[in-house]
Design brief:
Elements lengths: L8 E9 L11 H14 L6 E3 L4 E4 L9 H11 L5 E4 L2 H4 L3 H13 L3 E4 L9 H34 L12 E4 L2 E4 L1 H17 L2 H11 L6 E2 L5 E2 L6 H8 L7 E4 L2 E4 L8 H25 L8 E3 L5 E7 L5 E7 H5 L10 E2 H16 L2 H14 L5 H14 L5 H11 E7 L2 E6 L1 H11 L3 H6 L1
Parallel strand pairs: 1-2, 1-3, 1-4, 4-5, 12-16
Antiparallel strand pairs: 6-7, 8-9, 10-11, 13-14, 14-15, 16-17
Helix pairs in contact: 6-9, 12-13, 12-15, 13-15
């Protein structure tokens, strides 16, 4: 009686643990997984299973990611045809993510690779085995996500109690036994920063003085022993200090602040004075921007009855400026004569400009525009005109308001506003001129 020899299966044992704790012990979890896998492999030698020479051990890597060195080597060897079967202690040692598992299975199936779990009866060559595998992976992913939620909840609860939960210690504090402790020399520097900014009122002036004095940001050493020497205090570092409520003795979590276990460095009066100075320039710049914003559609907006709508603005008690387009008939006749309300300028302009950008990208409009543009400048061609219009749309957001207003005046002939619609009419010559502005002629390019 003849026997058919079993097909040789080159087997790789893959092991993984999430943390690197206790990996320096003489016999650790990685060793236990590897021994179990090799014993399982040895029990199937009669079926043609043979071990590969490589070890694939990921110590201290999460199963929720594929960024693992040993796993990458294993997948590369599979792609190279050097592995036929993978042995793991449990399926969650390979991955805890259904998405990652789907990617791996795609690689396995493409290269005819199977895998087995020592403690779980899985056979990926059958539909029932794949179903069981997906169920197990679903529970593995649930366990990982549930663990992450527990960690997040613990951090949130600890911060609500005012506990320091790690990170780079701010200037003025050191971390001792996982608690923030005031570093008095640095704390005095922080107090001086608050007092001097309150007196000077200018971050630029203060930073220049701090550079001359050699004042630096936090100098600290990480738990791994890496030294961070700090850097000369710049505007970013200064604002970071002046806006950090940790100096009031508080701890933050997701934008909320809670009373901390540590001592504050500055008092509430100093903090309030600095915050008032920090807010003031922002409000002034905002008012300047609002005052400088032009009316993009000045002289272009009309009601359905043909009467013009004029730019108009009002300034509220908070100093903010509000822009509108007001029907002229309201001023000449009586309120409600035009049947239109005063229109917020920003909303109307945004609507019209959006229509303009859609039209400029419309194949129908381009088809009508291209012949006129080429007739005006024979050095142009269809591709140049199309690219020019797309360029205008691409750079629109980067243009200054004054340039946007100029282009709007060039392209738009009239905006007609009715109670239920807005119609935009374009200048044919404006479209042609815009194309010529954005598209250099061939002769100009030859001269360049």
């Amino acid at each position: 009686m003849s026997t058919t020899p079993s097909r040789r299966q080159r087997c790789a044992v893959y092991t993984r643990v999430s943390t690197d704790e206790r990996l320096d012990q003489s016999f650790n979890s990685i060793d236990a997984q590897r021994d179990a896998g090799q014993a399982y492999l040895a029990s199937h030698r009669a079926e043609g299973w043979i071990p590969v020479a490589e070890d694939y051990d990921d110590g201290g890597f999460s199963g929720g990611t594929m960024e693992r060195p040993a796993l990458k080597r294993l997948l590369a060897d599979i792609e190279a045809g050097q592995v036929n079967l993978i042995i793991v202690y449990k399926i969650d040692r390979l991955t805890r993510s259904l998405t990652d598992f789907a990617r791996m299975v795609e690689v396995f199936e493409r290269h005819g690779v199977s895998f087995v779990a020592v403690t779980q009866p899985l056979n990926t060559t059958t539909s029932m085995g794949r179903l069981m595998l997906n169920i197990l992976l679903s529970f593995a992913q649930f366990e990982r996500e549930n663990g992450a939620e527990r960690v997040r909840d613990k951090i949130a609860a600890s911060k609500r109690k005012g506990m320091w939960m790690g990170g780079v210690p701010p200037l003025g504090y050191d971390v001792v036994d996982r608690k923030l402790v005031v570093n008095e020399p640095e704390a005095e520097t922080v107090r001086q920063l608050f007092r001097r900014f309150a007196a000077v009122g200018s971050a630029t002036t203060l930073v220049k003085a701090l550079h001359r004095e050699g004042v630096r940001s936090k100098v600290w050493t990480s738990r791994s022993g890496r030294a961070h020497p700090g850097k000369l205090m710049d505007k970013g570092g200064l604002y970071k200090v002046l806006n950090n409520r940790i100096y009031l003795g508080e701890i933050s979590h997701k934008g909320a602040w809670y009373p901390g276990e540590h001592d504050g460095i500055v008092d509430s009066a100093e903090w309030a004075a600095v915050q008032d100075l920090l807010r003031r320039p922002v409000q002034q710049r905002q008012r300047q921007r609002e005052a400088a914003t032009p009316f993009l559609l000045k002289g272009l907006v009309f009601g359905a009855d043909g009467s013009a709508m004029t730019p108009w603005f009002t300034t509220k008690g908070n100093g903010r400026r509000y822009r509108y387009y007001l029907p002229m008939r309201e001023a000449k006749e009586h309120a409600g004569a035009s049947g239109l309300p005063r229109l917020p300028a920003a909303e109307l302009e945004a609507l019209v400009l959006e229509q303009m950008r859609v039209v400029l990208k419309s194949p129908e409009v381009l088809a009508a525009m291209i012949p006129a543009a080429i007739a005006a400048d024979p050095t142009l061609d269809e591709a140049q005109v199309t690219v020019a219009m797309r360029q205008l749309d691409a750079i629109w957001e980067q243009l200054f308001p004054a340039e946007q207003a100029r282009i709007a005046q060039l392209l738009i002939q009239r905006v007609t506003v009715a109670p239920d619609q807005v119609e935009v009419h374009f200048h044919a010559c404006g479209l042609q001129q815009m194309t010529q502005e954005l598209t250099p002629s061939r002769s100009a390019r030859r001269r360049a």
